[in-house]
Design goal:
By secondary structure, the protein is of the alpha+beta class. It is 34% helix and 46% strand. A hairpin with a 4-residue loop joins strand 3 and strand 4. The longest helix is centred in the last third of the chain and has 37 residues.
């Protein structure tokens, strides 16, 4: 059984010196908040326009069965001799994946959902909101509570 709850989904736009370098700098910043799983990393520099596309997940394991997961997608663009910009899409979710099938797995699933899930979910939500605030600070957005 897998449960996913999305707590944060947002887009950021920012000016950048060089799109690929800025994208990689943001991914390096995110390394401090969990393990990184790189999904896509494309750079197109033909002609007068540079484009970059970087997609990765930040995964922070909260316990054996649950994680806080951020899906991050960064699109960058720079036309010849102009300022570059980045569009950063962030989705932060809590994911619980509990084995099913069989007597012991079903008993574990029931126990986890009745006694542990709520606390793990709250910890995941708190962590997601914290990291989201840190990302806003990195990008230079004033954080509002």
């Amino acid at each position: 059984m897998q449960v996913e709850e999305i707590f944060i989904e947002d887009n950021f736009f920012m000016d950048a010196g060089e799109p690929y370098t800025e994208s990689m700098n943001f991914m390096d910043f995110c390394l401090g908040y969990g393990s990184i799983k790189e999904i896509e990393n494309d750079v197109m520099s033909d002609g007068p326009q540079k484009r970059t596309n970087l997609v990765f997940h930040i995964i922070k394991h909260l316990d054996t069965f649950s994680s806080a997961v951020f899906a991050v997608s960064i699109e960058g663009s720079q036309k010849f001799n102009r300022k570059a910009f980045l569009k950063i899409h962030v989705k932060g979710s809590y994911v619980a994946s509990i084995p099913t099938g069989g007597f012991f797995a079903d008993a574990l699933q029931r126990f986890y959902m009745e006694h542990i899930y709520k606390e793990a979910r709250n910890a995941g939500e708190e962590y997601i909101k914290f990291v989201y605030g840190e990302m806003q600070g990195c990008i230079g957005i004033a954080v509002q509570n």
